[in-house]
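Handoff note, outgoing to incoming analyst
You'll be picking up this chain. Sequence as last confirmed:
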Amino acid sequence: MARSFPVRALVLSAAAVVLSPFGGEPALAGAGGPFLSHQALYELKLVKSRGTNAISGARGRILYNFSGSACEGYTSDFRQVSELDSGEGKLTLSDLRSHSWEDGAGKSYRFKIDTRMNDAESPPVDGIAERVGDRIKVKLKQPVNKTFDLDGKIVFPTEQIQHIIAAAREGKSVLELMVYDGSDNGEKVYNTLSVIGQPIPGTRNITTPDPSTDNDQMKALTRWPVTVSYYDRDAKAKEGEQTPVYAMSFELFENGVSRALVLDYNDFVIAGAMGRFDVRDAKPCK
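Most recent structure output, in case you need it:
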């Protein structure tokens, strides 16, 4: 079984962290505080396999860098290298790299995504999305030169995290958003459903600590358990209920950093434990 990992899951993982989409971020409107510029390394391992296409093993790493501010915009660099074992010695190695920049007010989003499966490279996805009036205009350079419009209610990755944090602060438990991140062929839009749990105060004991919870800047921060399910907006639900393409669970700190990742791709589930966490210097808005 050859299967790539959706960019959004990783970006969110990291963004969740900024979650800016996966990490920490700047003083975002409605988020209640700045996102944190940081680098995080997540170690991936298989925790569950299900269905007829069950895999016998999976491992890998996610390296995520997030930086920026509300005034200069947010930059994220993401790389995920994963190895899937479908049994009988059949291994699939995937290498996904993503670079993006998002305007602090969510008006513009630039992205470039490169994917390699085993020794085969897929055409890169390269483009820019900008808000124009009540619409979003997307200009793709690759995989094809194309321009198209999207619904203006759609949000970009950092905006998505901002909305989740704002909803969590307001005590909301459910949030529905349409999200565009340039993944797949650059034309995909996801309907997302975020389920937000009760706040976890920084003073609560942690069963499985990691570098983020041991960090002095993070110890006093509140975090929330969040599960985000991604649905193909163009797919029609069967018998009234649509199955998500994938779901992502994590604990989201109020500064956008995420820990305790769990990525559910229906056929299998992968956990991402934070192995390294470094806070980066950031220029404050003037």
